[in-house]
Amino acid sequence: MSPDAPPLRPLAGRVALVTGGGSGIGRATALAFAAAGAAVVVAGRRPEPGEEVAAAVRAAGAESLFIRTDVTRAEEFDRLIDGTLARFGRLDIAFNNAGFQEARGKLADQPDAIYDQVFDTNVRAMLRAMQRQIRVMLAQGGGTIVNNASVSGMRNPNVGLSLYSASKAALISLTRSAAMEYAEHGIRINAVSPGRVETDMMLRSGIADMAQVAAGLPLRRMGRPEEVANAVVWLASDAASFVVGHVLCTDGGFLAQ
């Protein structure tokens, strides 16, 4: 192997946390972190899929545990961070992936309760997550955070998802602001913005013809969770050591159209 080649396990010896880790992009990223050598803490609301992912990570040769967590509840997120530190003693990488999308509908018809659910999950919980993660990383001398945003926060691709789009735009701004504040302290903060990716959330989004949607993309296909996971691993690795406050669009060229 060339001396300039990237390491085969670029995250060896590091501890990674994945929220919303029981399915879709979260599950794929937990497994990708494991393949890259990291120990993985899987967080999610549902124990069964979360435990399954943790078992799959261990089967891949990495340490892992599942901690049941509703990220919108401050006490549960505190327990998640405390549990991670109790088991591993540090937190090197955080992928804040948990999110919520409202049922498709016109803006004037969206009730306050749905606004609260969207913004509590996609903005307030992300803010709380970064605050706790940053404090840990400051104490240990550095780390990396990747937030899962969306192309909807950059250009709304769907009529009827105004709250989701606005929340993701807020998350992108929050990510960039935090990145500027903490880069000098050795904490790199970035985001991925997936486009049309085959996940449960996408399947529940009310799109009638997925094949037609795929045909409208430059690659003429939907994305796979693993393709987003690969981008997250890269942002979390030393290969992206000069990447700060960036939004990496894993969208198959959607925004370039």
Description:
- The chain is globular, with a radius of gyration of 18 Å.
- Helix 5 links the parallel strand 5 and strand 6 (187-194).
- The protein has helices at 24-35, 47-59, 74-88, 112-140, 162-182, 200-203, 210-215, 225-236; strands spanning 15-19, 39-44, 64-68, 93-96, 143-148, 187-194, 247-250.
- The protein starts with 14 loop residues before the first strand and ends in a 7-residue tail after the last strand.
- Helix content is 44%, strand content 15%.
- Strands 3-2-1-4-5-6-7 form a seven-stranded parallel sheet, sandwiched between helices.
- It has a single domain (15-249), classed as 3-Layer(aba) Sandwich (Rossmann fold), CATH 3.40.50.720.
- It is α/β, with parallel strands linked by helices and 257 residues long.
- The model has no long low-confidence stretch (mean pLDDT 93).
- The protein contains eight helices and seven strands.
- CA(first)-CA(last) distance: 39 Å
Q: What's the β-strand tally?
A: 7
The CATH class, by name, is Alpha Beta
Strand order of the largest sheet: 3-2-1-4-5-6-7
From the 3D structure, determine the CATH topology: Rossmann fold
Rg of Cα set: 18 Å
How would you spell out the order of helices and strands? EHEHEHEHEHEHHHE
Can you tell me the overall shape?
A: globular
Mean pLDDT over the residues: 93
Helix content: 40-55%
Low-confidence stretches: none
Please indicate the percent range of residues in DSSP E strands (runs of 2 or more). Answer: 5-15%
- The CATH superfamily name is NAD(P)-binding Rossmann-like Domain
The second-level CATH architecture is: 3-Layer(aba) Sandwich
**What profile does the largest beta sheet have?**
7 strands, parallel
Give the domain tally.
1
What structural category characterises the helix and strand content? Answer: alpha/beta
The DSSP helix count reads 8
